[in-house]
Design a protein that fits this description.
The chain is α+β, with helices and mostly antiparallel strands. Helix content is 19%, strand content 35%.
């Protein structure tokens, strides 16, 4: 049986979504326990891929495959991965916020790890800062 797989993905940008609009700039930035620099959730200018969002989405579509275990068990849904965009544009501190099983979260995280240093950092008060970024990635079988 041939199964076409469709991986659809959407981006959730911290600065422009209803889900995160309850956060305000008065909320103190969270501290990263591994580094002394603050990690911001809300900034003046959100971090973004250096070559643009379309290119980043194309990269994900080419480097995230539907895990065999997820496909065999008809697992569908949205994985949400949080990561930090550092001041130098590298990515770190990957954390799967929402997992659907079958290795889907790990597959997205591995692709993101390979895309490190291809980001423009977030800026706050004109200075590059470490920022959180949320990436929802939807797995759908068709």
């Amino acid at each position: 049986m041939t199964t076409k797989t469709l991986i659809a993905f959407t981006l959730l940008l911290a600065s422009g979504t209803t889900a995160l609009s309850a956060q305000t700039t008065t909320t103190p930035p969270q501290q990263d326990t591994t580094k002394s620099e603050k990690i911001f959730s809300v900034v003046d200018q959100q971090a973004q891929p250096k070559k643009g969002m379309q290119r980043f989405l194309k990269y994900l579509s080419e480097h995230v495959s539907y895990p065999k275990a997820a496909r065999e068990n008809n697992i569908e849904g949205t994985v949400i991965v949080r990561f930090v965009v550092n001041r130098d544009g590298s990515l770190s501190d990957f954390k799967i916020i929402k997992e659907i099983g079958g290795g889907c979260g790990e597959t997205v995280t591995k692709a993101l790890e390979k895309y490190s240093k291809r980001w423009t950092p977030g800026f706050d008060n004109g200075k590059p800062v470490r920022t959180y970024y949320l990436l929802p990635f939807t797995f759908s079988l068709q």
